[in-house]
Specification:
2 helices, elongated
Length: about 500
């Protein structure tokens, strides 16, 4: 590896190669959503699709490069959005970028989007007559609203626009229209467009609630329509400075389709005086109860001995009296930024009789009784078969040889100006300024990464700090002419 913008010629230790391997692994982890988007599948023989098309016929759903298959049966999942049919007989849910269908009592789930290649498919919503499923997919290169038959056949776009992003579909009670939250992405800059309504067969769209025009706008998301079709419920961000749910930065609003009137079922903003607001509203079929989520200020969750919070619970608000009560605690932890999760919570839904709610919690599908709060688990088994595309990366080897370093850190000289210390590739080096060659300060068996050298006034010692993911950070000193370093700090920091 050569970089010719500096004169420091440094021999690389074996640890740097190990470090580069670690960086490569970290890159894989950070890019997990992109890797998931590279999954693919053929509906018949499950063999990877071959990318043989030209630029003019490019199909974004095909697997690329050297592929490999994964295949397993899942009995739990992460961030699954679910819905239950109006007749109460079957459930649709998403898992690892595919949509599944199964009996409402649980059992073996059938994949409905298996033939969509590397596309992601999620947030299914069953039409009132049970004949269609609205969902979000990127099979044409952008997250757009699509519909398919209830058995997964005849998928077709309602919105097909590379500059428009849609999420969170909600059907109108007549089954003719679908409301989504929408944003525009132009030149990589995304702007909220608010809540829009589309006919299920396409055609002219209608904007119902405007998106934010600035940093303090309302940014409406998560639409839910009353059973009589008169009101639209949704979540807004109020523009609170700290953007924290506990201080009321997220509230619920309702929109009257006939008059355009907007009401606020939840209110309260500012410091510790807020009720905590509300998010993710779902109105009951009869319009009597509004389900929503709220954080518990002092509530904690425990996972493998680690405690974290605040906990998120599901609440019910009586739309006649305004009384509120907690229904289910806990539910999935709220991700209030929505980053990497496509929403603040997984989508959930009321049963048509208004007696229960289907919701995902703790990796399982649950059914919570709206009167008693009793929670039942709906077991499922879903075959997950994916073809993973080759990662778009260029592997190369860094040899243990002298390299020309391009980037230095913390260059500092002795008081007499005769010697220089600096950091490069995780190590501290010392060099005579009269045409000297850099020499590593610490011995080769010193493992932690080294930073920020500082000379002692007499030029005999160098102080520096280290970082190690296990031992954390410490303060050290070492003889400038070579020798074992001495740790000065007792506790890591």
């Amino acid at each position: 590896m050569k970089c010719y913008t500096s004169s420091a010629n440094i021999k690389q230790p074996h640890r740097l190669r190990a470090l580069m391997r670690v960086v490569s692994v970290i890159g894989v982890t950070v890019s997990l959503p992109l890797i998931l988007a590279a999954f693919a599948q053929e509906p018949d023989d499950l063999r990877p699709a071959q990318a043989t098309e030209t630029a003019e016929t490019w199909d974004v759903t095909l697997a690329r490069g050297k592929t490999r298959d994964i295949d397993f049966v899942a009995t739990e999942g992460t961030w699954m959005s679910g819905d239950i049919s109006r007749d109460g007989k079957w459930i649709a849910f998403d898992l690892l970028g595919h949509i599944y269908r199964m009996p409402a009592s649980g059992g073996k789930a059938t994949p409905l989007t298996q033939g969509s290649g590397v596309a992601l498919n999620f947030q299914p919503r069953i039409s009132p007559d049970g004949r269609l499923i609205a969902f979000i997919t990127d099979r044409r290169g952008q997250y757009n609203l699509w519909v398919m038959n209830a058995d997964g056949s005849k998928p077709r776009p309602v919105v097909s626009d590379l500059n428009i992003i849609t999420f969170e579909p909600a059907w109108t009670p007549d089954g003719q229209h679908i409301v989504v939250r929408q944003s525009t992405n132009v030149d990589g800059r995304e702007t909220s467009d608010g809540l829009w309504m589309y006919h299920r067969d396409g055609g002219q769209e209608v904007q119902l609630v405007k998106g934010r025009s600035g940093a303090s706008g309302s940014d409406p998301v998560w639409p839910s329509i009353s059973g009589d079709g008169k009101r639209l419920y949704y979540q807004v961000s109020t523009g609170a400075r700290d953007r924290q749910p506990l201080s009321g930065a997220y509230q619920i609003r309702s929109y009257d389709f006939e008059t355009g009137e907007i009401l606020d079922p939840t209110t309260g903003e500012g410091g510790g005086l807020s009720s905590g607001g509300g998010v993710a509203p779902e109105i009951s079929p009869d319009g009597r109860w509004l389900a929503f989520a709220r954080q518990i200020p002092d509530g904690l969750l425990s996972y493998k001995g680690h405690k974290y919070g605040p906990r998120t619970a599901l609440w019910l608000r009586d739309m006649k009296t305004g009384a509120e009560r907690m229904l289910m605690d806990p539910i999935e932890p709220m991700v209030w930024t929505g980053n990497k999760t496509l929403g603040i919570l997984p989508r959930y839904h009321w049963a048509a009789d208004g007696k229960s709610i289907l919701i995902m919690q703790g990796g399982r599908l649950r059914r919570v009784n709206a009167t008693t709060g009793n929670v039942a688990t709906i077991p499922f088994s879903a075959r997950v078969h994916r073809t993973i595309s080759e990662m778009a990366r260029n592997e190369f080897r860094i040899e243990d040889d002298y390299v020309d370093v391009n980037f230095f850190g913390w260059p500092t000289s002795t008081a007499d100006g005769k010697r220089l210390a600096f950091q490069a590739v995780g190590r501290i080096y010392v060099q005579d300024l009269a045409n000297g060659r850099p020499r590593r300060l610490t011995p080769a068996n010193f493992d932690p990464l080294e930073f920020a050298p500082a000379w002692s006034p007499d030029g005999r010692w160098l102080a520096f700090v280290t970082w190690d993911d296990g031992a954390r950070g410490h303060l050290w000193k070492a003889p400038a002419d070579g020798g074992p370093p001495q740790r000065l700090s007792k506790n890591p920091g």
